[in-house]
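Why run this: before we spend reagent on co-expression, it is cheaper to look at a predicted model of the complex and decide which construct boundaries make sense. The entries below are exactly what would go into the expression plan.
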Amino acid sequence: MEDVKGSDGLGDTELRLGLPGTSTATRSAKRALPEGDEESHDELRRTSAAKAQVVGWPPIRSYRKNSFPGRKVEAEAAAGLYVKVSMDGAPYLRKIDLGVYKGYKELREGLDNMFKCFSLAELSRREGGSGSEYAITYEDKDGDLMLVGDVPWEMFISSCKRLRIMKGSEARGLNSRH
Amino acid sequence: MTYFPEEVVEHIFGFLSSHRDRNVVSTVCKAWYRVERLSRRSVFVGNCYAVRPGRVMARFPGMKCLSVKGKPHFADFNLVPHDWGGFALPWIEVAARGCPGLEELRLKRMVVSDESLELLARSFPNLKALVLVSCEGFSTDGLAAIATHCRGLRELDLQENEVEDHGRQWLSCFPDSCTSLESLNFACLKGEVNACALERLVARCVNLRSLKLNRAISVESLARILARTPHLVELGTGSFTVEHRAEAYQRLIHAFRKCKSLKSLSGFWDIAPRCLQAIYSICPNLIVLNLSYAPAIQGADLVKLIRHCFKLQKLWVLDCIGDKGLAVVASSCKELLELRVFPSDIYGTGTAAVTEEGLVAISSGCSKLNSLLYFCHQMTNAALITVAKNCTHFTRFRLCILDPGKPDPDTNQPLDEGFGAIVRSCKDLRRLSLSGLLTDKVFLYIGEYAAHLEMLSIAFAGDSDKGMVYVLNGCKNLRKLEIRDSPFGDAALLENVGKYETMRSLWMSSCDVTLGGCKALAAKMPRLNVEVINDRDDSDEMEENPSDMHKVEKMYVYRTLAGARNDAPEFVEIL
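The model came back. Tokens follow.
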């Protein structure tokens, strides 16, 4: 189980996109990873991470999804807190529903999961980093670019208009709202 | 054979049941074309934009049954914007003018307005069957019009449509003189219906064999209905919330015992485990069982039921049945042909309900299985290889591992070998949906071995353009290809442009195809419509003239004789 003990704020929101399995201190290795297997994933981390809310996934008809009252119903039209997520270097945007996450940690895990699918660890390696760290930023109601994690979660989800994952170096100059 | 008189040729054509066969014979020579088109009674249009309605009516003046499909399949998962198109009205308008003998209309994934239904009802008072699947745009008012005017209606089948509720009176619009109904399915309606009117209706329709109620129908009402319809073959119950000691429940058990012909059961919303007892008497005769709307039923409850269903051929359940439950299915249901296991917990508290073990168990017990839809949390290559060995008759194989791009948890390898085994072993495979971590290799296998594959669904898979090219060059019978979130770009798209004229359609979303690539395709192939579908709320970002390098979020390509459609909304650009 992932166990990043950062303080509230930046630590929790730091997206690590280095080689899978190298970024966390504690990881119970139930399975010995094949040697040199760079595609290996941290399975436990995957199962515990909040599933990223990719539109249209899993492929279940809305009719069926909406048939279960009392469960979290994804009316994918208007009801969710959908924001776009872009990542520097990734070819296209994703959309996620902030309402699904309980807090910053789950959001980070969800985004990590989502973008890892697209082999972006590879991308970051190619661009000269070795899993250089990324920062999650967001654009708020006023159009300002802020670092994610500074304000209470509830305040964040009501003011966040879109998310942008950028290289750590670029994010350093950003204001923190304190 | 051209020396036979036309009546003989026509008689021979009468033995051809598939529309594909009829399409083929019509291309042999002009004489056969003429005989065929005048004698064709049932017409299937797989893509409503591939041909103009007028042309269909003109070619087949004797048409009695028409089937039309609208939106692409991925519309089911909200990937197609709401007002993209697929309107039924033009078809109904043209049919009203040019095809007065129409008796049956089947529409799938189309937008059907109340206006269209009213026009349909008034233009075709002799309509015998109306089947709407995954449609939207109409309300119970439209249904009222059908009930009122279509005097000899035999079949009204509404499957999984979005229907606006404008009141319960529509059912009362079936006149007292209506006794012809054989099949009535309104399970997808959200609102109440007039229970008394329903009970009277089913009582006087003595040929009623299929009845699927909606959730609003109580157990009490169901008991009364069943008492009047002991010859039912297919039943969809309403809501099953009842105290098992209640009188209504006892009456229901009694009524079920009298229904000796029941072979298919569905519905069961909110059924409590104890109440499953009511159907124990039917189980030995059951061929079709759909419990996929009963989340309260866990593995153990289900297992007691399934043990008695030894004739079962089609089973739809939720994954709460668990691997152990599937093992019981495997040992009890030797005649099983189709299995669907739906997820009960999509948003992941992470309780892994079914895994590869359940699937392997099914495959060892149910070797006749030919159709599978399986949602699970993980899958291994070893399991898929075993499944492929045990079940060689798959025609439809759809596997959905809930976590996109997840590898084999035992080996951390992609699932290329597992799916490869499936396509090698199942020579009649027509439909395949992939998931899990997959490289270009799986597409190499598919292109090489899946000779009869007609429909392929790809998500979060592949490494490069090569993957898509293997499929386009290899699968000779491919008709529909739908791809999302995979790294296929312009080179793959443009590698084999002629292929798309042999297919119904190609869908690509969140891939690497650019606007320039789409334009190039459109320029090379004038008989394809290349639709670029933009996200509506991208308008704040959309430049006036997006560059050709701009990646296209959604692209839908289809062959057509009708040219660019004139009903496309603003956010769709047809190149």
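Confidence is low (pLDDT under 50) at residues 1-12, 16-52, 70-78, 117-125 of chain A. The CA atoms of residues 87 and 115 of chain A lie 8 Å apart. Bring this page to Monday's planning discussion.
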